[in-house]
Amino acid sequence: MDRELVEELLLDYEALGWISRVRFADIDGWALTERGRVEDERRLAAELDETRTRSEVVAAHDVFVVLNSRFLATITDWQIRPRPADPLAANDHSDRGWDDRVLNDLRRIYHALLPVCEQLAAALDRFAGYPERYEAALIRADRGKRSWVSEPKIDSCHTVWMELHEDLLATLGVQRGG
Length: 178
Fold this sequence. Notes:
Structural class: mainly alpha
Number of strands: 2
Distance between the termini: 33 Å
Number of helices: 7
């Protein structure tokens, strides 16, 4: 979208109480307010009704929930490398075999995610792009840029996954853990 239009919309949405400016430490951006979440949920529900794609999105979400459990376990393995004296030791990434196994797991999860994302994108165009972003992060991680697995401030595998998860939850009006 045109930058000026986006800036105008942000100010309009701020005036409506849907978003607010957030500044904390080195983070600066916009966030939905509670009123904005209600409006977002209303619009997303209307989108599902208008496009008649609720059943497709629900079915994709059901598969995603299973994949999400695998993904969370894999990310935990990336962050924690148990040691005999410390079962919750942080992964210092000195064990190449451990990290390679985790990267292989992330690849398998990516391949399992592809049909889910295809189903979602067929239902609603805005779901397109998640697999490409995840794969791009995975390729960077494979090339030795390990921060692309779970770094929160970049388009890492974890960041892309969490954005897709949040998009699904919001689209279906489901609370996290629900």
